[in-house]
Design a protein that fits this description.
By secondary structure, this protein is of the alpha/beta class. Helices cover 30% and strands 27% of the residues.
Amino acid sequence: MSESFKAIIITRDEDKKQSVAVGEMTEAELMEGDVTIAVEATTVNYKDGLAITGKAPVVRKFPLVPGIDFAGTVTESRHPDWKAGDRVVLNGWGVGETHHGAYAAKARVRGDWLVPLPQGMSARDAMAVGTAGYTAMLSVMALERHGIVPQRGPIVVTGAAGGVGSVAISVLSRLGYHVIASTGRTIEEDFLKDLGATEIIDRAELSAPAKPLGKERWAGGVDAVGSHTLANVLSMTSYGGAVAACGLAQGMDLPSSVAPFILRGVSLLGIDSVMAPKALRLEAWRRIATDLDHAKLATLSRTIGFDDIIRAATDIVDGKIRGRVVVEM
């Protein structure tokens, strides 16, 4: 009989009321997959907060172990790319949404979903980056592909004190960009400047309904907020600029007009981290290993234990967490 281990389990009753609790599982209860991993570190992303609090319908299969990303060591593999002892990272692929996720001592997934843990990075380092940081890197890469280089002008980062925003600021500043950080938490000004932001603006400047076109203020942006904020960012993007959209903290709507696109040639770049192809993932993690100031990771993240996950999930949805939260298992 296999040993049991602790897991956070989300269930739903006949009235579709969701509840969350810490329970016990065995390997036999894990879902289908050809690689089993001992989870060493995970994180609490905004999406995990939504899943655990039930504030959005992230979880679509019940019962389910939440947690959309993890790093750990392969214990068993039937996949040709992986063997016991390999160090791996997982982001997305529906894990923590429709497939048992990271908030358990063990996970079983498809080997095609995994990428190698970059050389020289620990499991904790990888989760200090996590899906938020990996999404930030995908956003930076998209801006680069569109020709938005530092010489083109400033880059605005919305939700700057959050997980995506804080990593985006760190990466962009290291690459030589002038970064404008938008945040509702002005007490975080010193933190954001330490990360590399040159200017701080209050999110109130961007959160009201947008004009079709505003004054040109930046060459591009990384937006994790959506709704009116994204509409304002687009309206103030300079000719030929681009904005990478990767989040919806303010809302899924986009109350904008076609004016920025047809009068200024602005491009809206959609960033999907969940189903991104493997080549893009490998490049993102290679860049994370080289282009992120790992000394700054310490200021970006704090560490909690398994028992603190549920509280941290509530705090992140309530906007009480800055940077990244790493869970050491």
